[in-house]
Structure formats: C-alpha cells, structure tokens
Amino acid sequence: MNKTILEAIADDVHYPVSSGNLENRLIARGLDSDIDFTREIANSKEYKGALADCLISLISAPNFTEGDVTISLSDKDKIIEMANRLYESIGEEGYGPSVEIM
Question: Is the Cα torsion angle 53, 18, 23, 42 positive or negative in sign?
C-alpha cells in the first residue's frame, strides 16, 4: 500500500493538525503532497525540514486540548527538541531551548 507525502507527514507529526497547514509546510520545502512517499523522500532534507517546520508550528499555538490530545508546555519542550534534532540533521539552525510562545 502506497501513501502520499501528506499522509506520511500527518502520521509523523502525531498531533491533529489541519491538512492545509501540513501542505503549506510541504510546499514551502518544495514537496508535492500528492506524490508517493518513498525512502528517498523520507531521508531527504526537504521532508525532514518540512516535518521540523510542522512540529514548530505546533508550539506556536496556545496550550489546547482537542479530542484526547493535549499539548502542554512540557510537551512543547519535547517537540522543540525533536524539531531541533531534525533541523540539525539537515544542517539548519534550530530553535533555542525555549521558544517564545505567543
């Protein structure tokens, strides 16, 4: 069974995020959300960057509960760490240990 890049990034984010938000991050990184997700794409700088961007977009939202999912301040710190590891793996500068949350 094949999955699209959009489906893969939604799975990797693990939190409920609108498909429009995910697509915006993919487009910004030069990826077509409708093509098949492959090993090459999974390991690409573009995909890892888009995933990190999606994770960072989660922390810019206020604390919220949606369905059975809650993102607290401590969760946001873990999300920042995950995003920073992705950014570092592709040679981009990550965020500081504490991102100012609006």
Answer: positive
